[in-house]
Amino acid sequence: MKILTAAQTRQADAATLQAEGITSAELMERAATAFCEWLLNRLPLPGQRPIYIFCGPGNNGGDGLAVARQLHEAGYQPQVWGLPAARPSADFTLNRRRLPTEVPYQEVDAKKLPPLPAHALVIDALFGTGLSRPLTGAAATLVQHLNQSGAAIVAVDLPSGLFADAPQSPDSPVVRAHHTVSFELPKLAFLLPQNAEFVGEWEVLPIHLDSAFIHNTSVDNYFVDDNVIRGRLPARSKFSHKGTFGHVLLLAGSRGKIGASVLAARACLRGGVGLLTVRIPAVGYHIMQTSAPEAMTLADPATDFVTELPDLKPYAAIGIGPGLGQEHATCEVLRQLLRKANVPLVLDADALNLLGANPGLLPLLPRESLLTPHPKEFERLVGKPARDDYHRLEQLRTFAREYKCYCVLKGAYTTLAAPDGTLYFNSTGNPGMATGGSGDVLTGLLLALRADKRLSPLDAALLGLYAHGRAGDRAAQQTGEAGLVAGDLVRFIGPVLQELTATPPRL
Ligand SMILES: NC(=O)C1=CN([C@@H]2O[C@H](COP(=O)(O)OP(=O)(O)OC[C@H]3O[C@@H](n4cnc5c(N)ncnc54)[C@H](O)[C@@H]3O)[C@@H](O)[C@H]2O)[C@@H](O)CC1
Ligand SMILES: Nc1ncnc2c1ncn2[C@@H]1O[C@H](COP(=O)(O)OP(=O)(O)O)[C@@H](O)[C@H]1O
Ligand SMILES: [K+]
């Protein structure tokens, strides 16, 4: 799914009006109908919960007025409050006229704001994508009042005060919505940790914006959902053999962190690799042979950490990092690997920390390497903290462009940057995955997929991230989020990959 900017959303509206020959009021009605349908599925019967709708002067306010009319038609008694404005939008004015006289409408007086009982439902239709500056004056006072009320807040399109795709200054007031119900495509603002307290749970409802316009509009950011991924993994041909899926090498583990290499190895095996060889320090030999007997174990001459790079000839892809440690000798192994490797590389954890500590190694990164830092590792990699989440995304884009690599920023909505700077936001996963070792599982899975020659580097990365999160979602259904441990993810990799595999066309 494409993520449009606020400006592109306006263009999509205009293109839809033109393509369908409808008025902007008709499109607004469509949005309001979709919103009401969503809301009516969740509301108690009329009369049980007071509904307050707060409308701004633009089309977001117009949506709010149309919602008020439709709720009234459905038997509810909403009360509507409008922000005083010199020049309301045409569709606001039209919907103001259409509001039945039985629906009370009052102008907001910042000195006498309506008391809001905590059991009320507040619909925030003050500002949407047309927000042009931080809220001040009556709008700011009203937003603070809404936030302090304790009432449940549902925002139309965007929580008022939040920009769709740019940071706002930390002290500018923004509605803290419990739900944000938006239209057609997700907004960048929904995907960033710094906005979570404003956006709450979010939902995107289809309003059938012009698909040709969306198709032809180029964007910097994509949201990766099931529709994007399903069928990307080709089915296995009947005559495939273990060579078809590649022999990979995993360099991982150090004393006390052999578990990381085991988790990555198991995930790699479940990710469908043909053959796996693991290079671990000698201390891990028995552990690995026992816990992942399907993997071949190549013990390092050193007991506690990896000190020698094995011959790279046999391997179709190489992963390095989980539990590796940051010893000097291990850093030299990484340096040699970067120099010699001519197959896809996956770098994680301590391999990234070593890159961060030795920035001279960065120019050695082979093209199309796949790096999987979490935000702290990413900060070490780029050497400076981000001002905010938007800035971090720009750092990610720049990094991927500069080193012609695929770089994954892990977290909720894990973000993949491609070498051309395009960002892909993953939609699966849950907070239960914030547990030691889930990243090691991701590395193993990505390594298996990078070795599969049938997949492009982009498809391998997108598929791996999506499947990893989905395995986490499936695991959490059984264990609960708190009870989830990284090993649980491994069990679901197989079933999830099966679900995402392309099915042959029916006769
Ligand atoms: N494709 C879509 O997503 C659709 C969007 N519609 C709605 O239209 C909205 C966008 O409407 P508009 O472009 O009219 O924009 P808004 O309604 O978000 O706000 C624009 C109005 O607010 C004023 N304003 C902006 N920032 C302000 C500030 N800080 N303080 C005070 N006033 C401020 C502007 O001068 C203008 O009057 C969307 O958010 C959505 O709710 C729907 O009606 C139709 C379809
Ligand atoms: N709140 C969350 N929602 C979705 N996924 C998450 C969340 N927290 C963590 N994850 C996922 O779990 C993994 C954690 O990786 P990482 O931080 O490297 O852990 P570790 O180093 O312990 O293996 C990442 O893939 C990340 O995207
Ligand atoms: K709003």
From TrEMBL:
The keyword Repeat does not apply. Residues 9-215 form the YjeF N-terminal domain. Residues 225-500 form the YjeF C-terminal domain. (6S)-NADPHX binds at residues 59-63, 128-134, 157, 260, 323, 374, 440. Belongs to the NnrE/AIBP family. Belongs to the NnrD/CARKD family. It holds the Pfam family YjeF_N. AMP binds at residues 410-414, 439. The lineage of its organism: Bacteria, Pseudomonadati, Bacteroidota, Cytophagia, Cytophagales. The keyword RNA-binding does not apply. Its cofactor is Mg(2+); K(+). Binds 1 potassium ion per subunit. It catalyses: (6S)-NADPHX + ADP = AMP + phosphate + NADPH + H(+); (6S)-NADHX + ADP = AMP + phosphate + NADH + H(+); (6R)-NADPHX = (6S)-NADPHX; (6R)-NADHX = (6S)-NADHX. Gene3D superfamilies: 3.40.1190.20, YjeF N-terminal domain. K(+) binds at residues 60, 124, 160. SUPFAM superfamilies: Ribokinase-like, YjeF N-terminal domain-like. PANTHER family: ATP-DEPENDENT (S)-NAD(P)H-HYDRATE DEHYDRATASE, ATP-DEPENDENT (S)-NAD(P)H-HYDRATE DEHYDRATASE FAMILY MEMBER. Homotetramer. Keywords: ATP-binding, Isomerase, Lyase, Metal-binding, Multifunctional enzyme, NAD, NADP, Nucleotide-binding, Potassium. Catalyzes the dehydration of the S-form of NAD(P)HX at the expense of ADP, which is converted to AMP. Together with NAD(P)HX epimerase, which catalyzes the epimerization of the S- and R-forms, the enzyme allows the repair of both epimers of NAD(P)HX, a damaged form of NAD(P)H that is a result of enzymatic or heat-dependent hydration. Its EC number is 4.2.1.136, 5.1.99.6. CDD domains: YXKO-related (cd01171). This is Bifunctional NAD(P)H-hydrate repair enzyme. Transmembrane segments: none annotated.
